[in-house]
Structures are given as C-alpha cells and as structure tokens.
Amino acid sequence: MKILTAYFSHSGENYFSGKIINVEKGNTAIVAEKIAAMTGSDLFEIKATMPYPKKYAYCVKRSRDELADNARPELERYIGVLDYDTVILGYPNWCGTMPMPVFTFLESADFSGKKILPLCTNEGSGLARSVSDIKKLCPSAQVEEGLSVKGSDAGECDEAVRQWLENNGVI
Ligand SMILES: Cc1cc2nc3c(=O)[nH]c(=O)nc-3n(C[C@H](O)[C@H](O)[C@H](O)COP(=O)(O)O)c2cc1C
C-alpha cells in the first residue's frame, strides 16, 4: 500500500491553550511528521503561493475573506495522487472547515477510489464541517472517519494517532 501524507500548517502567531504565542512549526506539521514516521509515507506540504500573515488577527481576516469568497488560492506546488492508495490529509480547523488551499489541493488531483483519512488539529471545534466538505470535493473517494487532535496536544498525541492509523489499517 502506498500512502501520501499531505498537510497544510501555519507557522507564526497562534492560540495555544488560550494564549497567543509565536511558533516556528505549526501543530499540523508536527502531527503530519509523526504520521509520516509511523507509516513510512511520503510527505507533501500544501502551501499557498501567497503566504498567510504571521499575525493571528490578519490571518483570521484573510481566512474569513477566502471562505466567504469560496476562493481557491494558488499553490506553490502540486502533486498527482495516481500512485497512492491512501491519502492522509492533515489541516487545521480554520473557521469551521479546512483552509482554502486544502480545497485547491483536493480539486487539483483525481481522488476517485482513493482512501482519504482526515486529520484535523483545532482548539476545540473538532472536525466541524471539514469532513463533509472533503466528501463534496471528492465524491468518488472513500472518506474515512477523521481524527481531531487538540493543537496544543500536537507534541503528545502519538497514542491517539497510532490507534487511528491502526483502526484504518494503515499500520
Ligand atoms: C485563521 C484561523 C482560524 C481558526 N479557526 C478555528 C476554529 O474555527 N475552531 C477551532 O477550534 N480552532 C480554530 N483555529 C485554531 C487552529 O485550528 C489550531 O490552533 C490548529 O492546531 C492550528 O494548526 P497549525 O499550527 O498547523 O496551523 C484557527 C486558527 C487560525 C489561524
């Protein structure tokens, strides 16, 4: 079985257990790297050509505008998924769903017949609308039950992640 772990993550200011702190590496990136190590999968970062502001308030403003516009921000690079059976898709919850570059990613390749495992880091809203949005964007994919990880627990989520990967037969 060939697995791709594709993720979006934002570094800079973020809420961490109620406080704004500055991070070098985003929460989802931390979890995605753990997943790649556990599964031996390839790792792909979904990155918008126009970087998101480091300042939290500006980032929230842009994410709200893009969501309202149903925007498809251009990506720095694209990847085909023909060679993969399973795609583990990591993203933060932004305003109740995925950041819009993840929408671009899901429309940029053919996910028919692929298994998609959604992994969402968040500060309390869980997966929210993200899984139903993935199903709408990839109607011919097999979208499995997603895993929600609290962003501030990203460093210590190994057991929950391992269990989820095991339940989905990828390790
Ligand atoms: C623009 C923006 C919007 C967010 N919206 C939500 C939200 O609606 N619900 C929630 O629980 N967390 C929300 N968060 C918190 C992130 O989901 C959480 O901190 C996540 O772990 C960040 O992952 P990252 O560091 O990989 O980008 C938001 C964060 C940002 C920057």
Task: Please give a structural write-up.
With 171 residues, this protein is α/β, with parallel strands linked by helices. 30% of the residues lie in helices and 23% in strands. The protein is built from five helices and eight strands; from the N terminus they run βββαβαβαβαββα. The protein has helices at 27-39, 56-68, 100-107, 130-137, 158-167; strands at residues 3-7, 12-16, 19-23, 42-45, 86-92, 115-122, 142-143, 147-150. α3 (100-107) links the parallel β5 and β6. α1 (27-39) crosses α5. The mean pLDDT is 97. The structure holds flavin mononucleotide (FMN).
Bound ions, cofactors and other small molecules, one mention each = flavin mononucleotide
CATH superfamily: Flavodoxin domain
- Provide the residue-averaged pLDDT: 97
Helix content: 25-40%
Spans of at least 5 consecutive residues with low confidence: none
CA-based shape: globular
Reading the helices and strands in chain order gives EEEHEHEHEHEEH
Number of domains: 1
